[in-house]
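Support case: user asked for a sample of complex input and structure output to validate their parser. Sending the pair below.
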Amino acid sequence: MRIAFFATCLADTLFPEAAKATVRLLERLGHEVVFPFEQTCCGQMHINTGYQKEALPLVKRYAQTFDPYEVIVVPSGSCAGSIRHQHAMVASSYGDAGLAARSASVAARTYELSELLIDVLKVEDVGAYYPHRVTYHPTCHSLRMIRVGDKPLRLLRQVRGLDLVELPAAEQCCGFGGTFALKNAETSTAMLADKMTNIVSTGADVCTAGDTSCLMHIGGGLSRLRTGVRTVHLAEILASTESS
Amino acid sequence: MTTFLGMPATAPRGVGHLRGDQPFPRAAHDALDNSQLRRNLRHATTTIRGKSGRVIAELPDWQRLRDAGSAIKADVMSRLPSLLVELESRVIEAGGVVHWAADANEANEIVTGLVRRTGSERVIKVKSMATQEIGLNEALEDAGITPVETDLAELIVQLGDDKPSHILVPAIHRNRSEIREIFLRAMPGVDPALTDDPPVLAAAARRYLRETFLSTSVAVSGANFAIAETGTLGVVESEGNGRMCLTLPDTLITVMGIEKVLPTWRDLEVFLQLLPRASTGERMNPYTTMWTGVTPGDGPQNFHLVLLDNGRSAVLADTVGRQALHCIRCSACLNVCPVYERTGGHAYGSVYPGPIGAVLSPQLTGIEDNASLPYASSLCGACFDACPVKIDIPSMLVHLRNKAPHSPAERAAMAAAAYTMSRPRLYASAQRAAKMARIVGRRGRGLPPPLSGWTAGRDLPEFPEQTFRDWWARR
Ligand code: SF4
């Protein structure tokens, strides 16, 4: 299948390994990955901070860039959530009915990585090998905005060598929330502290999730505390093989 | 002559409790520092969450009940004026008197005047959010009338000269040893040998309240529901103290937010299932008291209903924001909110704390007066999933943020970011420039505000050697 890849601004700029892993994984499964260069950012930060008007060109850019493709993948639950639940809303609240319709159409073809694998490509065992003790943080937007359910866990359970351990209070927010972590830094830090305690209690050496933003937040905290636990994007685990 | 009365007014300043003294992050700072408070809150919210989750799981049609609750509320909002007029005429037919209060000042004046005319110097109160919202207790005290809260938790707050911090459990931030101290200090006629055993504390409150019930002729209540077709008002509660107030006195004055009306008696079926399970985790609340006007020889012989706007018409005028008026004050959203769990209710500055407070208070006051509240959420969405009437709080938060005033510096930064990000070439060169300038420094420490808030507790990632875009171009 020909799959257009939306890398997200965060993965493109700060976490290219997660984006590269997505490409490697899909190519290993026999698909053609296309990366349209005109892509930039989904505008989630602007929309969620109260700058919908400023986000409008980003919404337009996303729709224009990806409209030509049948299937689009994004390795981020929160960006998928913004595209699916906010793009058409922003377009229509600024009176652009044409863009709203186009955004809704592109959004319906945009999948988060675990959705693409399980719902579209119908694969649960991606042939990965990852010999680590891993715990999975579901991330709020994957869990409640796009409702990926247990899809990431189903994928992880098929990974050879992987010891999957359950995260206590997994469904609790890690405290990132985009600009929330800046505007309410202390509350965010208190939420992160509890998330880290729970992660460390599992004895895992890796915490994974489907969103680079939450992983940046959690990883930044774990690193500051020198816990020794690493954060790794789900795509990187799924892309790993015995030879890599 | 014109019937246009101008834009609907917001709740007035200087009266009531919808505005805090400081923005949320500042107010949260103190709460986050108080580890006892955080422990109390965590314990209480975790307990209620668990209980509520278990009894909700018993109902196979919970999701359909939520849909029904949501649909009834949407219908109410679409024809609120005519339902209120219907309610008014039914209440009058049943022997009640109806008053319309545009805002807190008017409502306080009406109630104070009514109490004065009875000659009573004391009123007993049923726990009510509406009277807290308008600061009725303070208004009564200014008029020389003593209000006595009869809900146990509300009484603890009143005696402690404190503010409520939760919609349902106003003293949630207190533990039993703190409650014992408050009782010893402030409860008239309390036994000095009081222990902090919960039954002992409850018995002390009961003794004091019984005396007050029997010697006070005026009660003030709120209402959980009002039925337009019959003119019936209803209060649900757990202790029975509300029922004492609603049945013993001679005069009953009910202050009700105009959004509480329901079209028909049958609609109650839905809400009496949703409310107790979502709020207290009970299958059915122990006391449901309903009254229609006055019944000669039985219960209060004078009944007044005060219909309170205080900004609600302004909320109704916003087609996205009006969902906040669907709220049945169950507090489920507070109990699942990770922000509330850590900061407590006082940080929100309003009597409506937590997620619903973050969307309701700024709309009632006008967003300028509560501009930090829509940001007091990580948008995790737990509140939406918990709400028994399916209020989409996260979407409303985003909607209100879009209306909130922004600082010029933030606006400039966001505009610049959007400008860059909507131009791929410029964006790609900005990515490279950022890496070259190494603005994040060594492991991201020492960033300027507001980024310094982030790096106070976390390390920023290193900038990678190559962006994904560059890697893709070269492969
Ligand atoms: S918003 Fe929903 S969950 Fe929150 S108090 Fe109101 S009805 Fe309950």
